Amino acid sequence: MTQVRSVGVPPGRFQPWRPETLGLLAMIAMGASVLMTVAIGLLGPSAMVPRPPGPAWHPPYWLNAAPPPHLVVGVAAASIVLGALGLGAALSAARRGGLAGARWFLVAGCAAVGLLALLPPSGSSDHLNYAAYGRIAALGLDPYAMSAADLPHDPVAGAVEEWRTTTSVYGPAATAVQALASAVGGESVRLTVFTLALVNAAAFIGTSLLIHRFTRGDLRATLLWAANPLLIYHLAAGMHIDTLAIACVCAALVAGAYGAGRGGAGLPAYRHAGSGVLLGLGIGVKINTGLVSLGPAWELRRRPGSLALVAGAATLTVAGLYALAGRHAFDQVSAAGKMVSLATPWSLVKRWLQLVFGSGAYALWIQIGSLLLLVALAWLLFRVLRDTAGRATTVSAVMVVAWLLAAPYALPWYDGLAFALVALVPATALDGFLVARLAVLSLAYLPARAVGQPPDLWWLTEVVRKEVVPALLLALTAALLGWAVRAGALARTRRASTAPPP
What we know:
Elements (H helix, E strand, L loop, with lengths): L18 H25 L25 H27 L6 H15 L9 H13 L33 H14 L3 H26 L4 H6 L4 H9 L4 H14 L13 H17 L8 H6 L4 H22 L5 H6 L9 H12 L5 H22 L7 H15 L8 H8 L7 H15 L14 H40 L4
Helix pairs in contact: 1-2, 1-8, 2-18, 3-6, 3-8, 4-5, 4-6, 5-6, 5-10, 6-9, 9-10, 9-17, 10-12, 14-15, 15-16, 15-19, 16-17, 17-18, 18-19
């Protein structure tokens, strides 16, 4: 047999694009990214880390290093860029056989999440709002009718930095968890936040184990969720409530054994009922996770008995939760549905419409445009994934991704739901698009706090968030649409060529 040698690369020369080398570089970049995220919290209160009031002996703990704003913002930006580059390289290396050991990535990711639970949350001050809503509920008051501003002298509600006059936008299940944390923490914001951090870490790690089991130890799935530096930055270090909602819906998909395309055949009734309850709990945390329920509904469409069990259990769970909270619990959700966040491409559309039609005339046009874009994206992605389109996981992933890309209001941590679901479907170029989108959107929200931001960093909001990122996301969405059109046509041609003759 004639030996074939590679041409153009001298023997022994460093080859950065070899799968094994790429995998090594990916691990270094991902590890550095996570270590930077840990360092931000460990250094203590800063422009990236709010100070949670409470006794010094209460967890979480930090070094009180008082790092300068420019340093922590720069470290956060480096963490995001390195995390995105490392994750992209790791996915490429894994696809080419240059990376292995899903279990080690799972353990490393879960260890990092556990460590971050001991440190103060960073990159957002939302956890202070969670503590305040829990405090209001624990006092026997209504967080859907009262805001932190209504309790200005309370030691917990008084610590809220932003959205002080906003009542809770989260579901009753989230409020219950927040109230439990408040019962544990009492008047200590530190201990309340730490309790919430433990729940958050348990949800992230639990989701990691569920995805690992569901995909039978698939390395790509582990990289997209458990070892994803961008998700560790937002969902673990940032401690967003989205983690709990994602854990619920992933558990629902596993409980229903969806994804095999069997429509739930052979499962006992309690598994279907349990799946429905978990879906309901996910919706009870954040209502937008209701999109995931479309997947099980589609897969069970030919098994009406099983569908009725899942739908009935989910409906009863959601109805029960919101009956306890009251109809006004939907008020903030309804208001948020008409908002446009600064970093989405729709903010550019909003400004143009305001110039043409005047202030306030943009909402309806943007809602219509968003719906049309969602439908187009969903249809194109279904064409790409048509071979598995009968599975609940595929339907759920496609609808959530389409919604996130089309939504006028989106924040970086919302993308966690898409990554969890896309990890459960076959690999496509969509993985890379999601990594790029989350990296760009993450850079838009630095330092993600109005408090403690130096005046000379004004351009992060006025230039990066308002101008650069919306334009980049618009170009990225257009590129995704173009890829989906081509990939869908190619998949259709491939299916036609392999179909048996009539």
